[in-house]
UniProtKB/TrEMBL annotation, chains A, B, C, D, E, F:
Name assigned to this protein: Delta(3,5)-Delta(2,4)-dienoyl-CoA isomerase, mitochondrial
Family annotation (InterPro entries): ClpP/crotonase-like_dom_sf, Ech1-like, Enoyl-CoA_hydra/iso, Enoyl-CoA_hydra_C
UniProt-listed Pfam families: ECH_1
SUPFAM superfamilies the record matches: ClpP/crotonase
GO biological process: fatty acid beta-oxidation
PANTHER family: DELTA(3,5)-DELTA(2,4)-DIENOYL-COA ISOMERASE, MITOCHONDRIAL (PTHR43149:SF1), ENOYL-COA HYDRATASE (PTHR43149)
Organism: Colletotrichum chlorophyti
This protein's record includes keyword Lipid metabolism: yes
Domain of life: Eukaryota
Pathway(s) annotated for this protein in UniProt: Lipid metabolism; fatty acid beta-oxidation
Family classification: Belongs to the enoyl-CoA hydratase/isomerase family.
Amino acid sequence: MATFKDYTYTHFLVTSPTPFVVHVQINRPQKLNAFSEPVWREFEAVFNRLSSDPDVRAVVLSGAGDRAFSAGLDVQDASTRIPGMGQGDPSRHATVMRRYILEFQRAVSSAEKCEKPVICVMHGISIGIAINLSCSADVRICARDTRFAVKEVDIGLAADIGALSRLPKLVGSTSWVKDVCLTARDFFADEALAVGFVSQVHETKDAAINAGLRLAGFIASKSPVAVQGTKELLNHARDHPVEENLRYTSVWNSAMLQSSDFKAALTSGLTKKKPTFEKL
Amino acid sequence: MATFKDYTYTHFLVTSPTPFVVHVQINRPQKLNAFSEPVWREFEAVFNRLSSDPDVRAVVLSGAGDRAFSAGLDVQDASTRIPGMGQGDPSRHATVMRRYILEFQRAVSSAEKCEKPVICVMHGISIGIAINLSCSADVRICARDTRFAVKEVDIGLAADIGALSRLPKLVGSTSWVKDVCLTARDFFADEALAVGFVSQVHETKDAAINAGLRLAGFIASKSPVAVQGTKELLNHARDHPVEENLRYTSVWNSAMLQSSDFKAALTSGLTKKKPTFEKL
Amino acid sequence: MATFKDYTYTHFLVTSPTPFVVHVQINRPQKLNAFSEPVWREFEAVFNRLSSDPDVRAVVLSGAGDRAFSAGLDVQDASTRIPGMGQGDPSRHATVMRRYILEFQRAVSSAEKCEKPVICVMHGISIGIAINLSCSADVRICARDTRFAVKEVDIGLAADIGALSRLPKLVGSTSWVKDVCLTARDFFADEALAVGFVSQVHETKDAAINAGLRLAGFIASKSPVAVQGTKELLNHARDHPVEENLRYTSVWNSAMLQSSDFKAALTSGLTKKKPTFEKL
Amino acid sequence: MATFKDYTYTHFLVTSPTPFVVHVQINRPQKLNAFSEPVWREFEAVFNRLSSDPDVRAVVLSGAGDRAFSAGLDVQDASTRIPGMGQGDPSRHATVMRRYILEFQRAVSSAEKCEKPVICVMHGISIGIAINLSCSADVRICARDTRFAVKEVDIGLAADIGALSRLPKLVGSTSWVKDVCLTARDFFADEALAVGFVSQVHETKDAAINAGLRLAGFIASKSPVAVQGTKELLNHARDHPVEENLRYTSVWNSAMLQSSDFKAALTSGLTKKKPTFEKL
Amino acid sequence: MATFKDYTYTHFLVTSPTPFVVHVQINRPQKLNAFSEPVWREFEAVFNRLSSDPDVRAVVLSGAGDRAFSAGLDVQDASTRIPGMGQGDPSRHATVMRRYILEFQRAVSSAEKCEKPVICVMHGISIGIAINLSCSADVRICARDTRFAVKEVDIGLAADIGALSRLPKLVGSTSWVKDVCLTARDFFADEALAVGFVSQVHETKDAAINAGLRLAGFIASKSPVAVQGTKELLNHARDHPVEENLRYTSVWNSAMLQSSDFKAALTSGLTKKKPTFEKL
Amino acid sequence: MATFKDYTYTHFLVTSPTPFVVHVQINRPQKLNAFSEPVWREFEAVFNRLSSDPDVRAVVLSGAGDRAFSAGLDVQDASTRIPGMGQGDPSRHATVMRRYILEFQRAVSSAEKCEKPVICVMHGISIGIAINLSCSADVRICARDTRFAVKEVDIGLAADIGALSRLPKLVGSTSWVKDVCLTARDFFADEALAVGFVSQVHETKDAAINAGLRLAGFIASKSPVAVQGTKELLNHARDHPVEENLRYTSVWNSAMLQSSDFKAALTSGLTKKKPTFEKL
């Protein structure tokens, strides 16, 4: 069975610094890691592979270079990709736009749909698509120098690849969410931590990356059956009433409680030895 | 086409301090801005007009006078409006009550349904209906002296015009929401900021109003297509699973991305000039 | 009509320190208040009775002894209860597991379904089932020494009796929720307060219990029609869109506004005397 | 309190042939009862008044003249009302269109939202808006000569005022629904009966009207508390899972079972006399 | 483990005419099988036991005696059970009523929640509760002489134990459903078959019972894993969007496809021998 | 831009008998058109391409050869594809199964997600997957000789690729749906027509195919904007409450009403000439 290592990537640097941990870096530092269409199409391919790769248990997503996690849409590329505005039948143009948006959304959602936890580590410029991508991750960590903005209203549109769908469910204060989405204003690490958008702030990019990798390594040491089930059930919980989630959970665990990991974890608890888990 | 300026109001002071910004003041300071039935019926009329008025891009809602944003229900008025309790057939009485509640709810919801962002600036006494109204706004700001309370249990009823429906989705801590709703206790500016109910606290009412007007002015300078779409999509997101919202968003933007604002905003980005947007 | 006092309990200490307030203590301090199957079955019986007992208006739930609110599942008991893993037909085994999980979930949910508010006061070890139980309560308070952990991944499974269903809706930061659920790491009182999981921290267990009882007493002094309606409508709001909750609320209050408590509360407001409310 | 008789109508003939029964006739026979904007705006006003008029317990809706229940949209009127196609910014045009559709939908939905049962009696040409209106009614009856068509695709659009929303939930066969909606083909009384779109076919328009009035009279002789509750709960059932509807029903009937009608109906069962019910 | 045979029943005759088939007869023929409170409480107990009894694979529900499947509520009993109408506080009375309705609903729903398919065979008088019960079954069969009526509006109330919740989802024509629910009129076997309420009509009660038992026996010869999964997934489908049901199904079958029945069924297909399945 | 003609297919015969109409034939007659994994993977590829191909406006799906539309799963293939049952960790096996089911479901759903209407014409053996596929189509037509069966329980499993999810929403009688799904019994053309599963029966396969192609041609002559919108809105309606669908519809048509087809269709109505529509 092919693993993520059997592929080569154009716009991403994909490495495995420790067993079962994969580090995905957006690798266009000269473009401030902006996203052209080929970039987001490859992003989807990367996360689809990681999702079912048994050598992967946790993923860290970050941006190469000192200046930016990502400066958002590659506007130069976008202007050549999106078919001619203002010409022809608006309803046909709308159909083309809708299909394009749906594909772009699906690419961004691939990090959320990835069965393994994804930790997003941000630094420097982190605007536009950067916010959308990070909302698809499970845990957000940032460096002190991060400059965030839900930038879309500044280019005349409502964000349509996930930020408006997910942000209200990721942080507690709707008043804050509406403020930053309606104004496109910058906000910084401390504010992001205070509202709960990120759960850790580190002094430098390196420190943030290391914290992300440590967290990923810690998660990778746990039972993959337990970890992947936890991600799936938490994502389901976000979108369903409590009763619905309880019912879904009971069916999910009716199979998953038959895992050998349960026995391994219990035994290791008694023997104080680190358990070993089969791949998943 | 008529604009909000073509109407006169009995209980509200409606002005436009800067272009595209409207300031709505509850104008019964001698009654601490309490709401009688005519007041909430006029409230609905005001916001319905602002919703589609092309001269409006952002709204600030506040209370006239020094003492109160609003002291809630005008109990004197209420006692004369609500048909005789404890008499006649309880099922018929229930029907009358239900219709009345539905109309009252619709009035309070008109700020949420208003297509333009609404910034609620509170000060002094802000209890009962005040909380319900402010939960219908998009952004909440308050003065240091604000005294909040979800007051309804103190008059023997569960709040039924929106506070219980919206508050759990506006702030992060359910433990806090239940505490303040079950006890009707007072809380103040710092606590409101810490839990995310408001996103700004200012030292005086004047400072808070100014901040609200500044924020409204800033929003009014952005593309109205982008701003109104952002409000709509965020409100939709609150009530729908992520997948549902993404689908709705793709249809919404299939028309909205054909906006001239997109071009204007991109151009202004290059030329560093302030863009001008058509009315909406 | 029988009240909660007409029953005797094996694993719980159930007292009424002040009128209309009931204090339920998990009473297995020698086992760190761990939950065997008989314990959670009795837990359900206790809360079902309190739910409709007219002598009860608010409940405090805590754990007996100094060391733990609860150390979670009684693993020794569990190993004898759950039918033989890894033997026989996995689909039939799954059916047995699913039925078991559903019953266990129902027991934990009984605190949420209890019509009277439940205040959970935690101290010391509060892991595994402790988290699940506390998420079913309305308000969470803790002592400074509390050690929390969503412990399930450490025993090889995804939590399935409520923590993953409810926690994302109880606190604002999803990044934090995923962190603690995916790692099973400990967290402490200050962190629990900062993210909004608890709404009060007290220096000692005794202080926390006293605060819980005071809060319960305060709630018990209010109209039971108003209080129980508020709990029901807030729980409904969590799981429904705003429009749905408004509609449900209008029907609920069509009966509840005919309460004598409304009149009693209004009168007491005028006379400045403490109102008396009929039992419910 | 004003009743429906206190108003005069331009486009409708509103009469009360028997006590508590109201007959609403679309009264533009010379235009084949086509709907211009003023017609649907008045339609909404009529049904909103009937909804809470205590002199009304059941409504029959039909079309005046021999040739048509309704020939649908008044295209001549429509071409003057809808703002200039193909000009200006498509996103702004979309906003105007969306607001217009929402108002039109609300008008058509007013028959469904009317608290009293509405029986739609069709004859002759019944196409376009005719289908949309009839889907908002509770019971559909037709004359042998009725010619139905979900006509919208023939004028280049997907039906947007209710037919596509409601038809799939009114008849059993989706294969049939898609056939008639995608082709805009005619269908006739027998087919409409066989698929369950109508529940009665009569040989002439007069016979159909009489059957409708008889049915309305029969319903009007029942307890209005029971009848209006039944309409509300069935409409709620269409749009909710069974568990949700049961919960809503339990709250609804907690007030409605306190009705004097219950006692009157039981007594009349014993005494074999026709019960009298209070107005509602 | 106890089976349904280890219990004795007061109001029901519970037999097993063929292996794995259970026949439950409402056994109050002298009362036309009317339901008093003790009857519906025992009904729930019966179906809860059958649900997890491994000796049961299919259930037939019918009424003893020649005259009636069930004449509905035992009105005499009801008048003594339901606490005094029209006295005391309507809100407190509403609370008592709501709790009572919820328990009654749960009893009626127990046939739906029973994990084994339930075939309801009706004859003679089948009104009120009879309709509600039969809507909880999976398949409905009737004798030629059956007289059906959704009778509740005739006693002054909207049906609240399931008929209005389930009937609109069991038959295709909403026009028909509203007709019979709003008028309480009788309908008979042919009409019930034509609208799809029942799927078989037989000439006599005996023939109908035999057909029901034959169908139950046929179902009982199939894989219980497949049969019980099919019931669960169809019930889930009724209340969920297609995408939701597909997701739930994929989790359900991830365990159930590991069944030995799959292998047994495939093998028996090749060998043309009747497969034997383990109990479930 | 590539069209469906630029591809070659292994298991399907894809032709265009008339402009804008595509005929897709399952082309394994020697295997009774059974589905191996490569077949359903290619099925998905075919429909994904048709979905956005501007040369396609309506699709007919049928099976090559005289004997079968499709005999369902290619059991021989399946036994080699699905990883070893009963070995290893049941939870890991469940994960593999779940991923496999999800991919299989997605393939079957591709006909439903295809933006162009799909007419399924069945004949001969039409069991198992055949039912699942046909439920994904918009309109179902069959030949007199068709033998249908929801066959899955006969091979020891609950259908998991769509039949149980969609069938209850495609036909009116739940009693019938449960009967055929729980028993796996055969049913034939007349029964399929009576319950509404198919909407046309023809005497021979050829007659059925011709009817399907005629219907497709008729649909292809209509405005593609109107037709594709109608399919989308009807599919949305199935899974959403009426209010939700109305809201979605208003946004959809805000763009689609700007279509040139609207003008073309209106003009052609006046001039009695056949309108020409741009590709979509």
